[in-house]
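We include this case.
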Amino acid sequence: MSCQELAEAVNAYLWERCGPDAPTVDARRVGEHERGRYRWPTVLVREGYRAVLGAACDADLGFHGGRRPRRVEGGSAGADDIARGKDDVGRRPSSSSLPSAGVVAASPAFRRSAVRDSASNADQARSGLQALAEAIFSTECTGSSPGPASSEIGILLQTARAHYRRCEHSAAAVLVAQVLAYVQRALQPARLAAEVNQLATSLLLKAGEVSLALVAADRSLRAARQCEDVLSIAASSRALVHALSRSGRHRRAAGMAARTAAYVSSTAPGRTRAGLVLTGALLLRGAVAAARSDDRDAAFSLLDQAAEAAHRLGEDGGEQGVVFGRTNVALHRISVCTRVGDAGAAVHLAQSVHPARIPYVERRANLHLDLARAHSQRENWVGAVRELRNAERIAPEEVRLRPAVHRIVTDLHGRLPAGRRSAVQDFARRVGVVL
């Protein structure tokens, strides 16, 4: 795992743990922790490292508490030297008996996680998805193999989610396949089975494997009902709504989203912060499904209900790998406007959304793709190509893999005047679209 990957995995954990107020680390800071330059991260950052790397305690990562002036060239540091030091959030360091250079990287927990993702093209992504498909169809289910502990499998799933949010679908698919195999080979909590099948559904839909996605989504909902957890049922229903819509059953998907959201909202867990996150995200899925069926009224009604949930939630939040808040509502409103043919409204709404403030690459890429559709509908060819290039720049694997992106490129090429197709043709060759 590279410094960047570890930083994003820790940030993803802290986002779900603490919401928008969570501290963050970047690749540079992770490198400094590896080298021992900053030796005592804040409490939450240390918790994030332990969760992602599977460490039982801070000492397993080489972190040790204490307070002592650090050495500087020519002698010991004085009070002024200590005051100039800073830790992860700009405070003074609280320790100097901390890991020496490379202790974090050399720790057993770090070594276990040191698997770099080198897959950056569509062929490797499809290879990872092939492994996922084989795991879906695997019949091995002994129920007696000890396998890893549930906490260790949960860490794998958390890492897979981080890859997915960065649009590194090949790496995410390989990890999800591993988790599915563990869930099938040993007795694991039903909630874990529900969550991993939710992520499997999203990955399979990215690759256009709708039939397999329906299988994964159905298994997810069955597992959620087995554990009788209202919030898991909401999250798994969201996955099934997505798969149903992508299979062409748009009205059924929208109806399921509305009914399940109403049920979850009527329960005590549904009125919690986590319940608002999952209910709101479910309503957004339903809104897109309604828009796909050309039911404009239902789509905007579901959007308005989601907006109300976001208002009650306040700050954006996360639960079971699902992130929801005002930003998500705005992004889905743009998507709905594009799908009901109101491209002008989509472009106008996008002016109030700053891509740099969207926390995950996958969400930013989808915004660029929605805007490419909108500009194409308005015959703004330059804008459409620009947004496609923006999506490719930040998420090349997403653009090369997804059949939906290929359809956008093909449609744009067909609508362009013959003398203005060269830019689209160049883009198509680069991402593997056959025109």
